[in-house]
What does this fold into?
Amino acid sequence: MTTVATPANFTELGLIPPLLARLTELEYQQPTPIQAQAIPSVLAGRDLIAGANTGSGKTATFALPLLQQLSQQLETKKASAGKNSQGNYVTGLILVPTRELAKQVADSVKSYAAHLNGKIKTVAVFGGVSANTQMLALRGGTDILVATPGRLLDLISSNAIKLDKVATLVLDEADRMLSLGFTEELSALLALLPKKKQTLLFSATFPEQVKSLTQELLNNPFEIQVQSADASTLVQRVFTVNKGDKTAVLAYLIQQHQWRQALIFVNAKHHCEHLAEKLAKRGITAAVFHGDKGQGERSRVLDGFKSGEIEVLIATDIAARGLDIEKLPVVINFNLPRSPSDYMHRIGRSGRAGEVGLALSLIDYEDYHHFSVIEKKNKIRLEREQVEGFEVDEVENAALLAELIAENKPMAKPEGTGKKKRKKKTTINADIWAGHSELE
Ligand code: AMP
It folds into this structure.
């Protein structure tokens, strides 16, 4: 994979004036590394494999060239065909794993297209809402379609859209799409696409399934790897806590640090409500966001969080990917994610696009082993810290751990829990947090 170089100016990337004008309006002063490296190749028609997370600026990396190509095609076709979108065809297809991401990407595409005089039609389709409105929107075809795989297949089977003329395919968050069980849908969709097309694949991680997908799909691709959860902008910390103290520690941290906003991850839908109730008893109002909420409710919560009206949001991993919440000061893992790659996705919600961010994980003795696995897989190593006033009862923890081990559950002995080697205890104090004052 290519290592990133110093970003160039947007003007040097070969973008047309209406797009440049929009970027100036959006106050994008310089391309992010992925934009600087990939946009010229994508404009030249090359396939792309990008190891990139949300926050890297990946949406513009595919959206700007796509808009430029469509706009230029429209210019050349002007005399004859007049419109890009015809029949029930789609020219640029962007596949995404979740409905939230579908809406977000479509909104970004529309925003980047603001000075293309409404020439490019962009539609988003996703499940969880009635298909009728989406069918109506697709009438006459569309230039850019942002879709989740399942709903797209439904719309194809009702003849609302055809994929025979797709010229560019974007697979956004390919790893997430496969891990959410879209493998069969994806194969079915890929079989409907023309062989000759440009393919751009974005994935935060590259498990085997994604690797074989890239081999199957891509032709001499340009490769780039970038990290959005950049060590210089995102501070990761882990706190060991007594099992019974987690909620109290969370409430303490929220109240103590008065973060402008906090995103808290739990592992199950019902935990969201449960934790919200427990926080409410401690005087903290939190909204919840998970897959059992209706689409309307999810949109309302997301809008409220984006606008800053909601300060504390408790979410399952559905929120971990793709959500573009500006300048989120802190992400807290109340429960650890099952997969080490989800840890990276979760913490990527903070420290976005060069902002300083903070990712905290609260771990009790049952989490020690799993957190070590997360560290190992992600090639990180964090010092175990404790929160003043909530020191871990190490004797009790050692006993609980011994019980777990006796029950034959694989559980690593955490550093500092043993009798002999006590770890250096770090407590939160004004000095430690001073560096984060800009977050608040
Ligand atoms: P993305 O990774 O595409 O979800 O983008 C993350 C955030 O960065 C979004 O809020 C974008 O609007 C913003 N962004 C993307 N590119 C740039 C840029 N070159 N300069 C400043 N902000 C950017």
